[in-house]
Amino acid sequence: MGLLNAPPARTVFIHGRGRSGPDARPLIAQLQRPDHVFLQRTCAADQPERDADRAIAALGGRGHLVGHSYGAVTAMLAAQRRPDMVRSLVLIEPACYDLARGGRGVEQHIAAMAPVFAVADDPGVGGEDFLARFAAGMGADPPALDAGTCEAVAARIRATPAPWEIALRTDTPHLVPTLVLTGDAAPMYTEVAAALEAQGATVTAVPGRGHRPQDADEGLAAICRWQSDHSA
Questions:
Q1: Which position among 22, 24, 165, 206 has the lowest Cβ density within 10 Å, counted as fewest Cβ atoms?
Q2: Exposed e or buried b for every residue in 166-197, given b needs 16+ CB within 10 A?
């Protein structure tokens, strides 16, 4: 097959702690593009070290990676391991806290969440209690879930490593063209974005969409432009 008839490069979308697969990217999934691959959660919990290799394999050649929140950690690891396979990298509200240790917002977030992860293996802390603690650390209300769902979601989160414990290279934007999308200026995410910008990443803010700027038309357009500009 000649280059003119070659299929478009794949984009692999990597979910955060919540929904996985196309459900994690409803606006993008509506495009129904065959070159879009939505990484599914296939195991009990997300493990960035393992899932980075899954993301690389899903590219099927040189392609694009898009990671949201906790999934941005996986996307960065994949780009660091195989920069030759990644045409571009998009990090949405990235929970890549290792890159911005010392930042006030990052350290406040870690101080709030570290006690939650400290009881992850405590059998005396039930699923509902754990999720309430997790939500409080994130500054959110407890999720309205039935008891069975509470236990399942809590078990999944409890089995994931804390994002700040995963070592990441600060020079990733030198290896792969990197775009960072931020939402409503949550300090920990803007500090990570600033750390990446200092290394050459491009940062775009999409206000008014909270932690999900990819659900806004502006966010989707920014992703598409970035990939188009780095399609070679």
A1: 165
A2: bebeeebbebbbbbbbbbbebebbbbbbbbbe
Q: Could you please report the per-residue DSSP string of 126-168?
A: -HHHHHHHHHHHTT-PPP---HHHHHHHHHHHHTSPPGGGS--
Of 206, 205, 180, 174, the C-alpha closest to 193 is 180
Q: What is the pTM of this model?
A: 0.90
CA distances from 198 to 4, 101, 107, 117, 203 (A): 37, 14, 19, 30, 10
* SS3 call for 187: helix
**Segment 143-153, tens digit of pLDDT:** 888 888 889 88
Q: Report d(CA 183, CA 28) in Å as an integer.
A: 17
Q: How far apart are CA 218 and CA 206, in angstroms?
A: 7
Helix (H, G, I), strand (E, B) or coil at 45: coil
